[in-house]
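Supplementary Methods S3. Complex input for the zinc ion-bound model.
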Amino acid sequence: MARILVKGLGLVFSGDVANPRLDAEAILIDEGRIAGIGRADEWTGAATVIDAHGCAVMPGLIDNHVHPAFGDWTPRQNQLGWIEAMVHGGTTTLISAGEVHLPGRPKDPVGVKALAIAAQRCFAAFRPMGARVLAGAPVPERGMTQADYDEMGAAGVRLLGEIGLGTIKDLAEVVEVAAMARKAGLYSMIHCGGPSIAGSNLMQREVVIAADADIVAHINGGPTSLPAAELTKVIEGTSRAIEVVHNGNPRNALHAMNVLREMGRLDRLVIGTDSPAGSGVQPLGVMRTISLLCSLGDLDPGIAIAAAGGNTAHWRNIEAGRIAVGAPADLVFLDAPIGGAGRDAAEAFTSGELPGIGMVMVDGEVRTARSRNTPPAARIPEMSR
Ligand SMILES: [Zn+2]
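Predicted complex, serialized as structure tokens:
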């Protein structure tokens, strides 16, 4: 894979909450990874040059909360191509919160384990438009033991599906399951708020706090939220990641973000769509959530992008979601949409618009030029060899 020089960049969003904007106009890519960030005249010998024509670049976004089945198909909406549609929305890494929509999903321990391992394997080998789908997120059920979690961990399973979507719901068993999963090396999340699909449970503040899962899933409801005052107590009562989702209560998404901001802990904020779900597939769901937080919550766009980038990467211990030397070259080129408020992508977000995407690159490979799903960007990158 040849060296690629990206030049002529306007804004460069790093995905790092501590340093969200980089002072650079060029990025060098080598072997699918970012090899340099700086000025175009620092490097020579690139076989391919991409001129950004002044548009912005951000890391490929991470959707911290999806519910895949198998393939690029969702049984919930019987829709094909939802993962590719996400790539057209700037999301290049998707993390499963449980393969709960799979028709006939097994609930006995051996079936749960088999499904988790099969899903992990299938998606590791299947990358629609280059998207990384981290799947194999077993939903904990009664009857599963430490040996079951250890067996999955040894087989390469790294995620625990939402606690509360299965039979596990009481405080003592929730605490036990989260601890077993952690011991087995699985990153855990707990459903927060009212029941979603049939058979899932209302998960209240006391249980969510006691679980001490790595991520409080959809603090703003999936889709039914706990009351805002309860959210404050959950955020104050836990120390790990707090997720806001597109398919939740938007008012309470803003509330949760404000609580974290007042605590000085925006590094705990992560973003997901909680899709596919009853409310559909949202190819632009992560960007729409960023736009919500920036426009109605006055959040800096660089911080919001970090919430769907480096923050998630940190809490999940993965390497996507950042523009940094050594990181995978997952780059999304974006700009203000034609005819909208704002002169660049940052002003578009703070004006409540959706920026247009002009190009998406995953692992240094261009996967699409102008997105089929966003409005057209004012400035789009151009590639020359
Ligand atoms: Zn949920």
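The pocket of zinc ion is lined by residues 162, 191, 196, 217-218, 222 (CB under 6 Å). The longest helix spans residues 109-124.
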